[in-house]
Amino acid sequence: MADRLHDFARAVAARQSEVDVVDDSVMHAIALDLGMTEDDIVQARAEGQARKERARTLRQRSLIDDAITELEQASAWNPLDVEVLTMLADCFVRRARKTDSVDDMERARSLCLQALKVAPGNAEAPAILQVIQMNPVGERHKVPIGVIGGILALVAIVAAIVAFVFG
Length: 167
Known about the structure:
The protein contains eight helices and no strands. The radius of gyration is 17 Å and the shape is globular. The longest helix is centred in the first third of the chain and has 23 residues, at 38-60. The N and C termini lie far apart (41 Å). It has a domain at 81-166. By secondary structure, it is an all-alpha fold. Helices cover 78% and strands 0% of the residues.
């Protein structure tokens, strides 16, 4: 069964490279083409959820490379999970700030844009995009981490107020 789940993850990742967003119907079709049952599909999503939880713990412990590995796999299991996309973008920003990597920062930007395609009202993606804009890599012009934390906290508060007023 594990091989079939890995085949599913690889097939979804390959399809993502061909189209902007892989939706539930495309994922379902990929699963059926691979001979998966409905139970297999549920198990694949559970695997993605487990990887997301492991990544959350790794990220909290500042094990960013390990968190990225888990989140990339979680995204393959469920590319529509906006939380996975934004956590992965955050990890790429963190790593880019450490290594001064333009590629990681661009990957973070791309993930944020993908998250906004899936969920236009998502509050975290715009906050991360703002951090990316304020932190040009390759030039070593860095915004202190406290400022970034403050911005993210402010965005979360504004999102909560908007949800309360309009929700």
